[in-house]
Amino acid sequence: MRFMMIVKATKDSETGVMPSQELVEAMLRYNEELARAGVLLAADGLHPSSNGIRISYPEPGSKPKITDGPFTEAKELIAGYTLIEVNSREEAIEWAMRMPDPHGYGGGEIELRQVFEAQDLTQNQETLAKEAALREQMERLKKS
Questions:
Q1: Which run of H or E residues covers position 85?
Q2: Which residue intervals define the domain YCII-related in the entry (predicted)?
Q3: Number of domains in the chain
């Protein structure tokens, strides 16, 4: 089971306030712990939404609409994420509870969401085989 720990943005992260060196080191230790346990798939911080682009689909069949950031409502934005693969929802919660306060000033918030697997979306065997082949191709490319 894959889970994404979504670090919610704050006004500070949206204005570009960088984390303290102590927080950077605490997050590095946490990510190292995840890696040693063999559950870490990815972990990254994101630039503020002022550097972002939003692509929306206002009407079915119409051309996508591009909107440059910044976007409002910092509490609805994402400042970073950690993607893990674990055996259960409970294990994902345990790992999420161990993450340092992601902003270091209090007020940090993490949203934990399970990632859909292909089998959750379709039972079509041809589609599942194509998806599995794509994942294998991605793994081969990473190794080369």
A1: strand 78-85
A2: 1-117
A3: 1
43 Cβ contact list (under 8 Å, min separation 6) = 27, 31, 34, 80, 81, 82, 83
Alpha-carbon distance 130 to 136, whole Å? 10
Q: Is the pLDDT of residue 73 over 80?
A: no
135 lies in a domain?
Answer: no
**Phi, then psi, of 124 in degrees rounded to 5:** -70, 115
Cα–Cα distances in angstroms (integers) from residue 121 to residues 19, 52, 54, 83, 118, in the given order: 38, 29, 25, 19, 5
What per-residue string of b and e applies to 23-36 under the rule 16 or more CB within 10 Å gives b? beebbeebeeebee
| Residue 96 domain-assigned (yes or no) | yes
CB 2 within 8 A of CB 117: yes
- CATH number of the domain within which 111 lies: 3.30.70.1060
| Containing structural domain, residue 88 | 2-117
Q: What confidence tens digit (pLDDT) does each residue in 86-120 have? A: 999 999 999 999 999 887 777 789 999 999 998 88
